[in-house]
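WARN retry 2 of 3 for item q-0093 after timeout on previous attempt; input resubmitted unchanged.
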Amino acid sequence: MSDASTQAKFPNPAPLGLAGFALTTWLLSMINAGWFGGEAMGMVLACALAFGGTAQAIAGVMELPRGNTFGATAFISYAAFWWSFALFVLFLHDKVPGAFVGWYLFLWGVFSFYMWLGTFRSPRALQLIFLVLWITFLLLAAGEWTGMAGLRQAGGYMGLLTAALAFYLSAAEIVNDNQQRTVLPIG
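OK item q-0093 returned
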């Protein structure tokens, strides 16, 4: 027989998943915004495989016993995004037309849009992450479709905002849990 005091507490994997997402998104978005050139992509790919991909996948699997369908779906899906992105850049980027890459980005925008709809009862910080991420993917897709560098750069800046919001929510969940009070509000 067990009671609530003897049951194992499942740790919150969201700060890990959000940090993996934020750091990798920040690195790629610096390139998209034009702060760095393609020579910086190697670090993005390493991070995409290790932190953006693997750490987020681990966080997503950790959400399963917690019964968090949204968290599991988000973290595992965006982990797969990072793995697919790394594989694409490493092996296929010169073999796929830009318009098709635009569809890849657009469809990730569709996914991000309905995930954003799923946040409407969640803290405002999470709502903002998915709203800005959706816009980021749309701008990047439009940049691929039109060849307009300004759209890609705008997508890069929106990606930086997305990453900053994800870093904030990750930090808030760590700090608030550790302090056992709200230090950083999440809305």
